[in-house]
Each structure stands twice: as C-alpha cells, then as structure tokens.
C-alpha cells in the first residue's frame, strides 16, 4: 500500500462514521398493534429511525407497507398474534401501513 492511499482510507473511514451518526441518533419509535388499530395512528420520525410494532392484542395481525416514497420496496411482517416487528425507515416521505387481515391503517412521516 502506498503512502498516498493511507490518507484516502482514513478520509473514507471518517466519512463512513460521520454518515452513520445521524442514523444512530434517529432512535426508536414503538407503535402498539391493538385489536382494531395502530396506536398512534399517525407519527413523524427522523430518517433512519427504527419503527417497532408491538402486538398488544390477542388477535392475529400483520404490518404491511401499502404505499411509500418512490424507490422504497414493499415490506411486511408475518401474520402474528404476539411479539414485535421492526423496520428501519431510511427514505424521507410518507409511508402508509395496513393490517391486511382487518383493514386498519396508519401513516408514518419520515423527515
């Protein structure tokens, strides 16, 4: 490795750490999955936030992205009656989620 490539590697490492800091600082937002609703039904979070849906119901539900910002691939939890499902939202925009079993919805605005 030449002496010239060492500063480039150091710069790349510093840039990677600097880019990761805002994502780590974004945090965690917990949504409860009740018998017929998500609670809260509307939230705003920073990009890079982990959204965690926590089941608070004895019924089987799922969390399915039905509409999101351009370029975001659809994703969903499995059908569950207890436990949790988490997903990191990295792209800014509005996400609409639905329990496809019961039809209730919620929105997450990512800034």
Give your account of this protein's structure.
It is a single chain. The protein has 111 residues and is α/β, with parallel strands linked by helices. The chain has a single domain (27-110), classed as Cupredoxins -  blue copper proteins (Immunoglobulin-like), CATH 2.60.40. It has one helix spanning 5-26, and strands at residues 28-33, 38-39, 42-45, 49-55, 64-67, 84-89, 93-98, 105-110. Strands 2-1-4-6 form a four-stranded mixed sheet. It has a four-stranded mixed sheet with strand order 3-8-7-5, with no helix packed on it. The longest helix is centred in the first third of the chain and has 22 residues, at 5-26. The radius of gyration is 18 Å and the shape is globular. Mean pLDDT is 87; it is low at 16-24.
